[in-house]
Amino acid sequence: MAYELYETLNLPTQASSEEIRRSYYRLVRKHSPEKDPERFKLIREAYETLSDPKAKQGYDSLQKHGGEIIQLLSQAEDRINEENWTEAIRLLKHTLILSPTSDPIRNRLGLCYIHNKQLDEAGKLYYSLTKSNPDVALYWSNFGCTYKEKAESVSENDSQRSELYKGARTCFKKSIELESFNSQPFMVIAQTFLAEENYSEAVNWTEKAIGADGKVDFQDFDALFSLCIIYLRSSQLEQVTSTAERIISCLPEDEDVRNYVASKFAVIGFELVEAGAKYINPNILKAALTFMEAAKRFSPGNGEIGKIHKSISEVVSAFSQYDILKDDYQIIPGFKRLAAFGIVTALGAEDSAYERERNFKSIIDEISNSPDNEVFASAQRIKSRYPAIYQLNAEFFARLEKIALDISKKQQYQPQSQTQSQTTNNSSDCFVVTATYGTPYSPEVIKYRYFRDEYLTKNILGRKFIGHYYRFGPIAASYIKKHPNLKKIMAFLLGNLAKYLPNQN
Fold it and tell me: Cα–Cα distance between 230 and 248 in angstroms, integer?
C-alpha cells in the first residue's frame, strides 16, 4: 500500500512535523505496548521514519517514484556489471534526482566515480557521506579507497603521494574503529605501506588483518598470501617458506581448496621464472623456486608443478655452481662459456635462432683450438665438481669428453714428427672431414674418426694410409676451406661414403 506509514498514523501525506508528533502521542495512549503491542510497534516504526526529515524525504520519494527508481537502479546495475561507468553514473544521478537523500544510492555513485577515475567527485561525495553518517564503516572505507586511488595516480616522486596515503590510512582506521572484526581495512593499510616500501609496517598491518576476527583459519588465506608477497618484495625468502607453513596448518583437507592455493603460488612462481629468464637473475629464480616449492607442497600430486619445480631447481643449482666455476682456473675458457650458454638456453633466452647458433659455433671453435688434454680434463672436472651444470648439457659434455679421449689415444699410432706437427696445429684432427663440416664435433667427423681408430689403426695398410693422410691431409683441408663450392661437393661425397662406414657401438 502506498504511503502506508501515513495511514498508520491517520495522517494526510502533507502533514507537518507538529501534526505527526501530536498524532503519534494520541495513538500511543490508545494503543499502549501493554494493551496492543503489535499495533504499538507499527505506530512506533511509522513515527521514527516520518519524524526524521531526511528519512521522511526518502520515504516520500520512494512512494512517489518507486517503480521508476527501481527500474533506474536495475539499469544502473547492468551498466556496472558491463563496467560502463559513465552510463552507470548518468543513471544513478537521475535516480538521485527522484530520491536525493538516499545514502545507499550516493554510495553506489561514489564507487562508480572511483572506477571511472573521477576521484575529485568521489572525494566530495564521501566527505559528505562520512560527515552525515560518521558511524557507517563502509563509507569510511570507500573514502579511504578514494585517497588511495589518488595516491596511485601521481608520480612516485611527488610529495603529495605520501600525504594522500596518510589520508587513506586515516579513513581506514576510522572504519576499523567501527568494525574491528573486518580484516579488509587492515589489508588496504598494509598495501599503502607496501607501495611506499615500508615493509615492516606492511607486515605489521597484514598480521593485524590475520588476527582481526580472533582466530587464524583458511579465511585468512588472502592475508597470509599477501604476507608472502611482502616478504618476496623485501627479499626475505626464508619468511615466505615459514608463511607457507602457516598456510598449510590452516588448510582444510579439501583437494579443490589445496589446488587453488597451489595455483596461486604457482602463478607467482611462473611470473618470477619469466622475469628471472629475461634478466638472467639468479636471485629472482631463487624466489621462483621458493614459490614453486610451496606450490608443490600444497598439491604434491600435481605433475605439471612438479616438473616446473624440478626444472627451476636444476637451473638455480647450476647458477650457484657457475659462481664457483667461472673462477676455476682448471676449466678452460671455452667450457666456461659453454656452461653459461647452457644455463641461458635452459632459461629459454629470447635470442634469435641465428644468434644462438652463432654464439654456439664461436664457443665450439674456441674449444676446438684448446689442447685435447685440457678439453678432456675440463669435461671431467665439470662432471665431478659441477654436476648441475654438467646435467644441463650432459649429452654434449659427454661427447666432448669422448672426442678428447679418442684424440689422445690416437697419438700412439702417429710418427713423432707428425705428433709434433699436430701439437703446433690443434685443428689437425681428420683434416679433410673437419674442414668440410666446419667442426671436429660433427657426427660425420666422429664417424670417420671412429673408423680410423677402430679399423685403420688395427692393420698395416690402414696405418700406412694414416701416415700418408697426415702428410697430405692438411694441404687438402686448407684448399677446401678456401673454396666454398668444393666444400659442398666434399660434404656430399663424404656424407654418402659415411653411410657405408660402421657405426659406434
Answer: 18
**Strand, helix or coil at 296?**
helix
Angle between helices 184-195 and 199-210 (to 10 degrees): 170
Counting Cα atoms < 13 Å in the Cβ hemisphere of 268 gives: 26
194: its cell numbers: 607496501
- What pLDDT is recorded for position 424? 34
Radius of gyration over alpha carbons of the chain, in Å? 40
Q: Are 276 and 284 in contact (CB under 8 A)?
A: yes
Q: Which residue has the cell 502521542?
A: 25
Residue with cell 615466505: 240
Give the residue carrying C-alpha cell 577515475. Answer: 117
Query: Which pLDDT does position 204 carry in this prediction?
Result: 96
* 240 SS3 class: helix
Give dist(CA 429, CA 406) in Å, integer.
11
- Residues 362 and 346: their CA atoms lie apart, in Å, by 19
| Residue 477: HSE in the Cβ half-sphere, 13 Å Cα cutoff | 20
251, 235 Cβ separation under 8 angstroms: no
Measured from the Cβ of residue 427, the count of other Cβ atoms closer than 10 Å reads 17
Whether 428 contacts 470, CB under 8 Å: yes
Distance CA 325, CA 110 (A): 61
Q: Which three cell numbers stand for residue 460?
A: 698395416
Helix (H, G, I), strand (E, B) or coil at 311: helix
Give the count of beta carbons closer than 10 Å to the beta carbon of residue 135: 10
pLDDT 10s digits, 108-159: 999 999 999 999 999 999 999 999 999 999 999 999 999 999 999 999 889 8
Q: How far apart are CA 294 and CA 308, in angstroms?
A: 12
* Helix ranges (DSSP H) in 1-52: 4-8, 17-30, 37-50
Please give the model's pTM, rounded to 2 decimal places.
0.61
Q: Quick: pLDDT tens for 450-502.
A: 888 888 887 777 777 777 777 777 777 777 877 777 887 888 888 888 887 88
CB 199 within 8 A of CB 233: yes
DSSP label of 56: H
Single out the residue of 241, 260, 243, 242 nearest to residue 298, CA to CA: 260
Q: Alpha-carbon distance 108 to 85, whole Å?
A: 11
| Phi-psi region at 184: left, alpha or beta (left = phi > 0; alpha = psi -120 to 50) | alpha
Q: Where does residue 15 rank: exposed (0-12), middle (13-18), buried (19+ CB within 10 A)?
A: middle
